[in-house]
Amino acid sequence: GENVEQHPSTLSVQEGDSAVIKCTYSDSASNYFPWYKQELGKRPQLIIDIRSNVGEKKDQRIAVTLNKTAKHFSLHITETQPEDSAVYFCAARGYGNKLVFGAGTILRVKS
Amino acid sequence: GAGVSQSPSNKVTEKGKDVELRCDPISGHTALYWYRQRLGQGLEFLIYFQGNSAPDKSGLPSDRFSAERTGESVSTLTIQRTQQEDSAVYLCASSLVGGRTDTQYFGPGTRLTVL
Description:
The structure holds 2 protein chains of 2 kinds. Chain A is mainly β.
């Protein structure tokens, strides 16, 4: 089945700097890759997603890139702000419509 | 419109008791998913319902876990003879069609504590 690995597990950046979180997946048939943000005690919220027919997608300060050949995708947050501090999860939709999640990255933005 | 709702928000139970968790998906969403999230961990898939198809139960950790869904509405996750290792947040999500590229929307979760 699908396996998703996510790095780093924790990431500290200075306010205004960029943050990059990387994920790799194993199932070459996976074609949908969402990113979720989870604040402490809250539900995961979708922040951006990408389908396998595109290589990059942007939404204001957030972008996601996908390399199907290498089977990895990345989340890029520019001009980070304290409110970006949260746990970020990548996921890949593999066999059977299931989302398989990475282990998460704790992002801390220091002001 | 209304999002995914779950009840109860918190449940404290004694080891060995049965618990039932409820999920109300977004109206019109045919796909429903249950996940478990242990403290500080990622999301672990449990079960997936899509319309009238047989559910995908491949993520259920043991036969103490079961889930039902009536049509395209409410789902209940039942844990029998609870153990301390069952303590976690149980999250429900729903999506519109359940196709390979559909967005899942999560409920607020039920925090289960087994004493």
